[in-house]
Write a structure and sequence with these properties.
single chain; 161 residues; mainly alpha; Ferritin
Length: 161
């Protein structure tokens, strides 16, 4: 199976999952978080498509990669968990875990790959997933920033400039 097709399929499924969560969320911050995460997954998908276009087709085939492995993590696709996540302020932690599992998935596949070119591509995708994890963490920090501000009495002696 083509490595990039697998990765792109997983990103599309993740985007759809986040769009569903955004539509179902009743808490404005969560709706905002899931909407931004969906957009981030779309950007990540587009980056993978570009990487696929730049790669040699002979190096993107990995025989050990099964179609069944290219499914977005079952954790976020289970309906009862999705019902829970739509109003859970800690849903972000599950998103981070899923991103970390994605990195592990590609690193594990790279360890199994016998062809050096395939291994290199899998590690490149894993690195792209690490960048995406950083983006996800930044999105959460952005969405949560209105809740985090400095308002301590010990800083009351500071002048405003």
């Amino acid at each position: 199976m083509n490595i990039f097709d697998c990765a792109i399929k997983m990103e599309e499924e993740a985007r759809m999952c986040y769009e569903e969560l955004a539509a179902a969320a009743t808490v404005p911050e969560l709706k905002n978080l899931f909407t931004i995460l969906a957009a981030s997954e779309q950007e990540h998908r587009d980056a993978l498509i570009k990487m696929k276009g730049d790669a040699k087709p002979s190096k993107t085939q990995f025989k050990a990669l099964q179609e069944a492995a290219c499914v977005f993590r079952p954790l976020l696709s289970k309906r009862e968990i999705m019902a829970e996540l739509k109003n859970d302020p800690d849903a972000y932690l599950l998103v981070v875990k899923e991103e970390e599992k994605g990195i592990g998935f590609y690193v594990e596949l790279a360890e199994q790959a016998k062809d050096e070119g395939v291994r290199e591509i899998l590690l490149m995708i894993a690195e792209e997933e690490r960048k995406h994890l950083s983006i996800v963490e930044n999105i959460y920090a952005f969405v949560e920033s209105p809740k985090n501000f400095l308002a301590w009495g010990e800083f009351s002696n500071l002048k405003e400039y």
